Amino acid sequence: MNTQITRRSLLAGMIATAGGLALASCSSGGGSSSGGTSTITVAGQSDNLTQVFNPFLENTALGVTYNGSFIYEPLVQINTADIGKDIPWLARSWAWSDDNKTLTVTLQDKVKWTDGKEFSADDVVFSYQLLAKYPALNLQGVPAGDVSSPAPNKVVFTFKDPSEQLFPSIVSAPIVAKHLWESVKDPTTYQDPNPVGTGAFKVGQFSPQSLLLVRNDDYWQDKAQISAIRFVPYKDNSTITNAMVQGQADWAGAYIANADKTFTSKSPNYHFWAPRAGTDGLIPNLERWPLSDIAVRKAISLGVNRKQVAAASGEQPATSITGLPLPTYQSAVSAQYKSVGFVEDKAKAEQTLQAAGYAKGSDGYYAKDGKRVEFSCSFPASYTEIAARVQVLVSQLKDIGIKLNIDTTTVDDINPRTAKGDFDSTMGYPVSSPPRAFSFYNDTMNPNLYYPIGQATPSFQNIERFKDDEAAALFKQYPLATTDEQRQQILDKIETVFVEKLPWIPMFYWGSYSSWSTKRVTGFPDPDNPYFTAVPNVVVALRLKPA
User: Fold this and answer.
1) Fewer CB within 10 A of the terminal residue: the chain, N end or C end?
2) Could you give all domains of the chain from N- to C-terminal order, each with its CATH number?
3) pTM (2 d.p.)
4) What is the mean predicted confidence (pLDDT) over 262-267?
């Protein structure tokens, strides 16, 4: 697994990595297909696999499943591969009011919990009220509003402000059973060791060494053709790669260095796919010096060689100064920035520091008021691809008189630390494959999502703690726009704020890392059939069939 997956799944909850085709296995009729008997193994990553399945908590056993909606399901599976073509899931259909303040959802029929109880709108209302009552559980960033049920299969969300632009967050929360969870005294600490969901799989066996999910034969959709999925935790990307190469695992969502040589060349059954999914770079804590100084951030942006940083992990260098991942969002780039890319200019980087009052000391590093321009980059030690990039940055920043230190931590520790602002900088932050251009900026720089240092940002948005009155006003204006032209005009201004104030420093476009073997099962998406990303998730699992 990689840190993008970790952050992405925390924000998106059960968005997982859903795609957008009308799959036969996604029909509302239940259990009509004949189930196979094969068990596949997924290589996941976990520092400490414990029997905790509460879908609203950060570090649980669901992490080893890539939070792929196998047990607890969302209303809609958001398509991050074919933007806009989202898959109805527990919601059969939905519609917004003309003012985009009311969302009416019609639920699927004949859905049951794995304990045999009927699923209804009451469960949905309860789940969303739980998020409102306990904000710490709201990892998906569901906006505040009222939720009600006018009929057993209808749910109505009512928001104070137009909220259609937040649709991915609204519909991605995991739904839990009211008849079980209403007796939970404190859901913020509840472990949920024996989860009851509506999903295509349920817990078969658990141990610290592996988690076995078995097929739900009473599933409301066509049941899976594979009988079970065994999730095995590994400590880092290298051990996951070894497991895949040696045939110990069939599927993973991990970065593989030099995948052509180290993995896919080993067997015609081995496949690796990392479609460009978003933008990443150096994410500063804007409440800590020296990265609080825009001159330092601009110097860094000018001084780095993005090709080298990206090449360290086989990625593509970021090009557009708007930060938007290209070519996917080329149409959303402001006219004034259509052809404007990042330029490496080390001399100008140093001139920028000098103009801001910094002077280079005898040690080769710039300083101001007796303080050296020095900061650390925090990331999990097991994420080898990030380590490779940061090592390159250490050398590049030294060349322009800035000292970068490496601060490694654990997978379980990084998100709580960055959420509370306990870091100088990090990498791997961008929290999701942006389903819209607006989402890209809303997730990473919306000042209205600011939390002071020490108070955790519940949805991991704006962890750099960007504050700007102009930007705050633009983010409030965007939902009020009624035409695509008006929305683009506001987006153009947001892009200008990003370019001029540089809340974080884009460096490369990242991919949704996925690897699989077709020796035992087939049906995975790939570049020739990119129906959605192949990171382990239930939408793909329902398409798999024994080879």
Assistant:
1) C
2) 73-182 (3.90.76.10), 201-273+516-546 (3.40.190.10), 276-511 (3.10.105.10)
3) 0.78
4) 96
